[in-house]
Amino acid sequence: MAKTGGILSFFVSLYRDGFRNMTWGKPLVWLIVLKLIILFAILRVFFFKPAMRGLTDEEKSAVVGERLTQPPHNPDTLKLITE
Amino acid sequence: MDVVIWSRIQFAMTAAYHWLFVPLTLGLALVMAVMETLYVVKKDEFWKKAAQFWIKLFAINFAVGIATGIILEFEFGTNWSNYSWFVGDMFGAPLAIEGILAFFMEATFFAVMFFGWNKVSPKFHLASTWLTGIGATISAYWILVANGWMQNPVGTTFNPDTVRSEMASAAAFWEVITNPVAVSKFCHSVTSGWVTGGIFVVGVSAWYLLKNRHVEFAKKSMLIGAIVGLVGSGAVMLSGDSSGVHAAEFQPMKLAAAEGLEDGGNGAAFTIVPGIKIPKMLSILATHDINGFVPGINDILNGYTDNDGNEVPSVAEKMAMGREALEALAVYRTTDDDFVKDDARSILMDNEKYMGYGHLEKPEDVIPPVGVVFWAFRFMIGLGMLIALVLLLSLIAIWKDKLGSWKWLLWATIICIPLVYICGQSGWVVAEVGRQPWTIQGLLPVNVAISSLSAGAVKTTFFVFLAVFALFLAIEIRIMIRAIGKGPEVEPSENI
């Protein structure tokens, strides 16, 4: 447990001191932050809503199943199956 | 243009943009790890400074490239929801492993590599640098497992209850992750990244030599870059060979399109450019047999006998079997009669392999855009060989101490930096355009994989992406050029 705590505090200080003493890396961090904001707060929220959001798994299966079976198919096959 | 075309263009642009950053990440990771190893082994501070400089350029590339892959996942859910559902069970495991691995390795070893110069021992730091590169490489493996499955869907069975391709067992998972297409694609992609990293280091070093700056640093960096690049080139050729054999076996139409081969045959010739052919070479490359049969576009359309003596049905026959499968699926999903359900399931399973063909309107729909694939293939091979030659000449120039007098070579290495990107992108055009119309080979064509969206919605996001991508790319190039302009000895070596 003490060892885990030691590793954790090592990484905390690694990040803290690392960001604090940054020189040329600072603009890169801001670039990453800006990009993540654009990606997750703008593009994801306003432009990329999952098409089947809110549907249950059964409903998703039904939607995709319906699409897969949409084209008109050979009526002879249907006869073959149902006979 | 309809929604399918716009969605494909958008996905292609995002993937191509993502692939601008990945190969340099993989290649520079190897270069900087080798340099830092030299520092730790030789205890020479020069190699520490050299490694730190290339780590700096690695960081710039990484910062702009980070999360560009996530946009592809956004597009899966929004534009390709039918496909996402269809592959969800199969893609879940590799992509989850990739995500977790990328996060943990990057959050730990990356941090040590960037922030840990004064905090950990040189050996621990070296291990972190190697593990950063290894983590990125393993990450690429899982992505290419997913991509390889789309090119050659092994290990899964279509479940008509869930309407998904599913892995039924651990053995199936093993089959998916050892898919020969995924393995050769991984080797080809990663080693092409080594070529990218190698020529990038050689080109940047050449620029310093032309400016007569940081001469010792440039010469030694050039040596490492040229070795990494050449090893990569050799490995790209070997893995390219196995990619060709796999294309002949699993995606013969892609190979026929890449060769512009209308009518195939035994002892087929390889076309260098239209009108110039090497007799028998295509058969050797595709089958490792001088008289091996390579099917052309017409053979695939009309049916043929493969090299193992198996009869490959015509596309029209596959369409008929595909329609039987889809009809059986429709019956299975609507009937309450258990007897009928069992029969439908049985018919579906018998024809599952050709299910996607049932969606085609005419046999010619299986032909990808031949001109695009044909020329992309030639760009990839031609530029790859040119870059390998330039790398070899760079090594000779270093060995004979001719770098000062062979200025043309220094310029050639700089010109090769944009060319290596065109080469890599061309490779992906061959791989992805060459497998049209399939999202998943033989199972799901692109027009069925798409969500119910308006073309206008996709167009809007396409142009938003174009603007955002262009902005970030311009920022990266500007920061990268400034960092290269400053050179290896300007910044304090201990801080990033």
Topology:
The complex is a heterodimer of chains A (83) and B (496).
Chain A: H1 2-20, H2 26-47, H3 57-68, H4 75-82
Chain B: H1 3-42, H2 45-65, H3 68-79, H4 81-115, H5 122-151, E1 157-159, E2 164-166, H6 170-177, H7 180-210, H8 215-250, H9 252-259, E3 265-266, E4 270-273, E5 276-278, H10 281-287, E6 293-294, H11 297-302, E7 304-305, E8 311-312, H12 315-334, H13 338-351, H14 370-399, H15 407-433, E9 438-440, E10 444-445, H16 446-449, H17 455-486
Antiparallel strand pairs in B: 1-2, 3-6, 4-5, 7-8, 9-10
Helix pairs in contact in B: 1-2, 1-3, 1-5, 1-7, 1-8, 1-15, 1-17, 2-17, 4-5, 5-7, 7-8, 7-14, 7-15, 8-9, 8-14, 9-14, 12-13, 14-15
What's the gist of this structure?
With about 80 residues, chain A is mainly α.
Could you please describe the fold and organization of this structure?
The complex is a heterodimer of chains A (83) and B (496). Chain A is an all-alpha fold and 83 residues long. Chain A contains 4 helices and no strands. Chain A has helices at residues 2-20, 26-47, 57-68, 75-82. The termini of chain A are far apart. Chain B is mainly α. In chain B, the strands form 5 sheets. Chain B has a two-stranded antiparallel ribbon with strand order 1-2. In chain B, a hairpin with a 3-residue loop joins strand 9 (438-440) and strand 10. In chain B, helix 1 packs across helix 8 (215-250). The two termini of chain B are 47 Å apart. At the A-B interface, helix 1, helix 2, helix 3 and helix 4 of A face helix 2, helix 3, helix 4, helix 12 and helix 13 of B.
Please identify the oligomeric state.
Answer: heterodimer
**Average predicted confidence as pLDDT of chain B:** 93
Mean pLDDT across the residues of chain A is: 79
> How many strands appear in the DSSP assignment of chain B?
10
